[in-house]
């Protein structure tokens, strides 16, 4: 088999454009951690001083802690259910031919392009029509609508590139389909499944629109932040909280992206 001997050359104009794009995109976000260490209440330059007081204050706010644990509970349930539903859905999309598959896949991915405001209003009207009381349960339902398409989109590339000869060998040895899945398909694609789990957890943890329309008396962390924006004296503490959320979300997304690439280099080496 011919070996690929090409190499990548640096495209300097493209690299400069990417750097400028990233700078413009993330510059406003960089001001959040900068001002979170400011000793003054008001967001302005020059900074009045350096302090960790706003971070320490977060540990003494019981409503904040309740909202945080509510978000963790909702995100955990949503990420688990989204991943469990996305695995067979992605496998069905990749493996089987069915009439109307393309429109069906497009319908599943529709929440990725619909504004969260429209989805929130639509689900609120539906739940009110059904007489369902707003709670963390309804928030989780709304997050499922958003996270399931993301989960499928994360898993599809991995299942498309998966070498099915391993499954065929397992079937030739007499293993039933469900044991082939647990002993071959699932372990080989576990990094992508874990990446899907982390990605959907992050999306659910940070989601605001669905929580805004579908939460009842139990608020999630984004709703707590929204409510505290009315009080200027609490704004530095919110900056500190936002900095922690940014760092937490960045770590989870980075890990999920790295896990999603596990095994791609090996498959690329086999194709050379």
TrEMBL record:
Pfam families for this protein: BPD_transp_1 (PF00528)
Main location: membrane
Cellular compartments per GO CC: plasma membrane
Protein's UniProt name: ABC transporter permease
PROSITE patterns hit by this protein: ABC_TM1
Topological type in the membrane: Multi-pass membrane protein
Gene3D superfamilies assigned: MetI-like
Family per similarity comment: Belongs to the binding-protein-dependent transport system permease family. CysTW subfamily.
Taxonomy of the source species: Bacteria, Pseudomonadati, Pseudomonadota, Alphaproteobacteria, Rhodobacterales
Superkingdom assignment: Bacteria
Sequence ranges assigned to domain ABC transmembrane type-1 in this UniProt record: 68-256
GO biological process: transmembrane transport
Residues that span the membrane, as ranges: 14-37, 74-94, 106-126, 132-156, 192-215, 235-257
Keywords, comma-separated and alphabetical: Cell membrane, Membrane, Transmembrane, Transmembrane helix, Transport
Keyword Transport attached: yes
UniProt subcellular location: Cell membrane
């Amino acid at each position: 088999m011919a070996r690929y001997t090409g190499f990548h050359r640096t495209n300097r104009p493209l690299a400069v454009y990417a750097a400028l794009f990233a700078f413009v995109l993330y510059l406003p976000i960089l001001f959040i951690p900068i001002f979170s260490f400011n000793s003054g209440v008001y967001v302005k330059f020059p900074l009045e001083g350096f302090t960790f007081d706003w971070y320490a204050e977060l540990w003494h706010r019981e409503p904040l802690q309740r909202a945080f644990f509510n978000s963790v509970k909702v995100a955990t349930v949503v990420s688990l259910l989204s991943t469990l539903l996305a695995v067979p859905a992605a496998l069905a999309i990749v493996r089987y031919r069915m009439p109307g598959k393309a429109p069906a896949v497009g319908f599943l991915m529709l929440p990725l392009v619909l504004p969260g405001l429209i989805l929130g209003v639509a689900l609120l009207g539906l739940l009110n029509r059904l007489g369902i009381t707003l709670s963390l349960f309804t928030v989780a339902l709304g997050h499922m609508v958003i996270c399931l398409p993301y989960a499928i989109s994360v898993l599809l590339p991995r299942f498309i590139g998966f070498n099915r000869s391993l499954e065929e060998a397992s079937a030739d040895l007499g293993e039933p389909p469900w044991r082939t899945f647990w002993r071959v398909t699932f372990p080989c694609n576990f990094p992508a499944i874990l990446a899907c789990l982390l990605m959907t957890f992050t999306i659910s943890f940070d989601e605001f629109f669905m929580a805004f329309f579908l939460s009842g008396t139990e608020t999630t962390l984004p709703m707590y932040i929204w409510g505290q924006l009315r009080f200027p004296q609490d704004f530095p503490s919110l900056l500190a909280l936002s900095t922690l959320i940014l760092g937490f979300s960045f770590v989870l997304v980075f890990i999920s992206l790295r896990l999603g690439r596990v095994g791609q280099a090996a498959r690329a080496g086999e194709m050379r």
